[in-house]
Amino acid sequence: MMQRCGLFMMTVLVVGLLAGCQSQLPVASSYPMETQHKMQAARHWDILAEDVAKQSKKALDDRVELRLLAIDVIPDAQGPFAEVFRELLRSHLVHEGLQVSDKDEGQLELRFKVQMVKHGKRFQRTPPGLLSVLGAGIAVSRDLGADAIYAASAAGILADVAIGTLPGYSSHEVIITSSMVWRNRFVTHSSSIYYINDGDNRHYGKPIPPVGGDGLPAYTTKSMSVTNN
User: Kind of pairing, strands 38-39 and 185-196?
Assistant: First the structure.
């Protein structure tokens, strides 16, 4: 009886080893944990506008021939965000001492574009202690190093206990791109990515439509199929 049990266990082990030697599909893995800020207030729009203005000032300080040209702020978007962000951007440009035109003069163009993406269901797990490094509030993502995740302070740990939650999960993201253009050449070009509250998505325009199986936008594919029927 003992011999039969031993033979059975050996057979199971050999079969397992042979199965492990077969070619397998790669196991899906995620990217390393990182943070991404969430826009939830007009003050957050103001912070981004200030950053864009500072970038513009820095770029023009290096281009003497452009420093005194008037800047036209041109939105490539519609909705509350585009309307408010244009005025915030003008204010910060003036504060930086730059020439900002009241009406388009066709000299320097500072354009901004808003693209919104709506995702399907995704899994998200909140790592313990993450709030320890989020106490500074929203910031432009390029200013944060990966090491910031490990920079938790004692005060931040207490904040974790007191607050207990992160900003709510969202299925919407916005990509805000600003670019300064002179004579069909980019002087600056920068993009920032943020989560937004699902209920705030109308502030940013319409989401980019998904693509159907035939390469056309999903709404086009659907309308064509209805017409054919």
Answer: parallel
The tens digit of pLDDT for each residue in 194-223 reads 999 999 999 999 999 877 555 555 544 443
- pLDDT, tens digit, 9 for 90 and up, residues 107-132: 999 999 999 999 887 655 555 554 44
Three-state DSSP at 105 gives coil
Report the sign of the C-alpha dihedral through residues 197, 202, 206, 210, in that order.
Answer: positive
> What domains sit in the chain, N to C, each tagged with a CATH number?
38-125+171-205 (3.30.160)
Per-position DSSP letters for 13-63, written without gaps between them: HHHHHHHHHS--PPPP-PPPP----EE-SHHHHHHHHHHHHHHHHHHHHT-
Could you give the CA distance from residue 154 to residue 171 in angstroms, rounded to a whole number? Answer: 32
For 145, the token pair is 């190093």
Residue 131 near residue 156, CB atoms below 8 Å: yes
Tokens standing for residue 111 = 């354009």
Residue for token digits 């940013």?
A: 204
Nearest in space to 135 (alpha carbons), one of 41, 37, 34, 31: 37
Residue 112 near residue 52, CB atoms below 8 Å: yes
Edge-first strand listing for the sheet containing 38-39: 38-39, 185-196, 172-182, 108-118, 71-76
